Every structure is written in structure tokens, then in C-alpha cells.
Amino acid sequence: VQLQASGGGLVQAGGSLSLSCAASGRTFSGYVMGWFRQAPGKEREFVAAISVNPGRTVYADSVKGRFTISRDNAKNTVYLQMNSLKPEDTAVYYCAASRGWWPVTSNQQYDFWGQGTQVTGLQ
To answer: Which residue among 16, 32, 55, 85 is least enclosed by CB atoms within 10 Å?
Structure first.
């Protein structure tokens, strides 16, 4: 699976941003899809994941209630809607695909990664 993330940018604190990740190569609908992020000097951390059959989602506590993950299997795309952004949300955001068992929240459980897109939340 090849993944291409897009939609990053600069946003004022409290603002919103929507990320997209387009997949190609294999059957997108057969993969759990996740979003991770990595801030400068920090390890990559889990943000959100969505199950193969949409309806199950899981979020990091730090984004729960503010971020929403969704997927459109017909378009081979996973989305991350980010609301009420904070400066601490600043990071490079990566989408990833996993063949693992739900829930899939660890880096090691993901098999394919996109190239990352920068999100900067301004004060």
C-alpha cells in the first residue's frame, strides 16, 4: 500500500484543519488506518485509528473530543478532522495502514506509512 498524506499547514490556536491520506496499491478496505504525529525532539505518537469496517475508532487522550478520524473506502482515503487546535498539536502527521487486530495503536503494528505532512498550531 502506498500512502500520500496532505492537508497540513499553519493554523491559529482554536482553528481547524483537515488532513487526507490517499491510498493505492492494495485493497484499502482491508486495512486498519491510523494517524500518528511526531513533534521535534519527541517520539512518534499515536493519534487516532479507524477499523476496517468503519464504526470503530480509537483516539489518544490528548486529542479526544477535538479530532475525528473517518474513512471513505470507495475513495481509498482516510481523513483526520482537527478542531480546536492547540500549539502542542504542532507536529508532522503521518498516516499508516495496518493488518493487525483491533485496536491498533502502536507504531510496531503498522505495516505501511505515508510521508508525513506538517501541522503547525500558532499561539
So the answer is: 55
Report the distance separating Cα 22 and Cα 32, nearest Å.
14
Over residues 27-61, the pLDDT tens digits come to: 888 899 999 999 999 999 999 999 987 779 999 99
Q: What is the spatial distance between Cα 75 and Cα 94, in angstroms, rounded to a whole number?
A: 19
pLDDT above 80: residue 100 = yes
String of DSSP letters for 4-64: EEE--EEEETT--EEEEEEEESS-GGGSEEEEEEE-TTS--EEEEEE-SSTT-EEE-TTTT
